[in-house]
Amino acid sequence: MVGGTKLSAVTARSIEVASADSHSLKGGVGNGRFFLDRSVNSSPLPDLNSRDLRPRKPTDGDRYIRRRTLPTKASLKLTRGPRPIVKEQRIPNGWEEDIHPEGQPLYSIVINARNRRIRVHTDLALRRPENHPVIARALHMFSNLAHECDELHDPDFEDSDIEACLVVSKKFPEEYGYYLANHRTQTIFWLEDIEHNGMEMMELDDALDADALQLKLEILYWRHVTDFPCHCSLSSEVWEKLSPMILFGVVDQEYCDESTAPKDAATLARLETFWGKAKKKRDVDITRPTCSWIC
User: Is 181 in contact with 163 (CB distance < 8 Å)?
Assistant: First the structure.
């Protein structure tokens, strides 16, 4: 059982094969995949209220294989001066937009489930108005499930340890998918037990042992971090250790002729000041771990 979930596992080789085709580092435009297609007509989707919320993996999304219909070309004009381009298509209230280094827009929102605040991610195109009721329904169903799962509210976990992802994919038009990531244990988990049939659907049924399962979940965790890097957080333990480590480096540079500190004393002092400012923001809202790259 991992994260309150009964699962089975696969070998690392199977993991690599299963996930390779759906990631841009293994494919993309150069391999004949098309991101825009004028000829694709979206098929009618099931009624929003008839869809189920089901466990899915980070590799179950369609980010790198989906086809998008080109919109009608608009008449645009770039005005002079350093003004930003104003985006006309609005995203739903409460959601924030980030841009992946590859250029993919990503969206996240923080929800409250009992005493837990959870950041929820998706790569569904939320600037398309037709997707607003879709994500609203998926988020509502996930919120209810998160509220009911007692294991999610273990007081030993911090809000920054856990984040979730909603997988809305044309590969699974009759459902909403979800999974959660645990940054402390670097694994993924779900809010329900997954029996053998469910493991078959998720390609997790050919387990060898618990170690192989954990390896699978760790690899899937890093796939999540790769796909949604914008809010990956550091634990409070790491944050508390950073300042003494930086200050030790300052003293080491200042008084030791052969210092092993990685930067000069002035740079390290500025980093320690920066750490203090970032930590204050983190203490205000732990779900927005400001500047975690300082680690």
Answer: yes
Q: Is the dihedral of CA 124, 25, 221, 199 positive or negative?
A: positive
Quickly count: other Cβ atoms within 10 Å of residue 170's Cβ. 12
Distance between CA atoms of residues 222 and 57, nearest Å: 12
At residue 11, the pLDDT reads 31
Among 12, 4, 3, smallest CA distance to 209 is for: 12
Joined tokens for residue 15: 């993991």
Among candidate residues 268, 113, 246, 259, the one with its CA nearest the CA of residue 191? 113
Question: Low-confidence residues of the chain, pLDDT below 50?
Answer: 1-43, 289-295
Q: Which residue, among 170, 152, 149, 177, has the nearest Cα to 162 in the 3D structure?
A: 152
Quick one: pLDDT at residue 15? 31
DSSP string covering 48-98: GGGPEEEE--GGG--TTT--BPPPPPP---PPSSSPPPPP-SPPPTT-EEE
Structure token digits, residue 181: 């990531």
Cα distances (Å, whole numbers) of residue 64 to 60, 102, 165: 11, 11, 17
At CB < 8 A and 24+ separation, what contacts does 276-284 make?
276/243, 279/239, 279/243, 282/160, 282/239
Alpha helix (H) ranges present in the chain?
Answer: 12-20, 132-148, 196-201, 210-227, 236-255, 265-284
Are the beta carbons of 110 and 119 closer than 8 angstroms?
yes
| pTM of the complete model | 0.67
Query: In 3-state terms, what secondary structure has residue 180?
Result: strand
Residue 113 main-chain phi, psi, to 5 deg: -130, 100
**pLDDT of 38:** 35
Joined tokens for residue 102: 């590859």
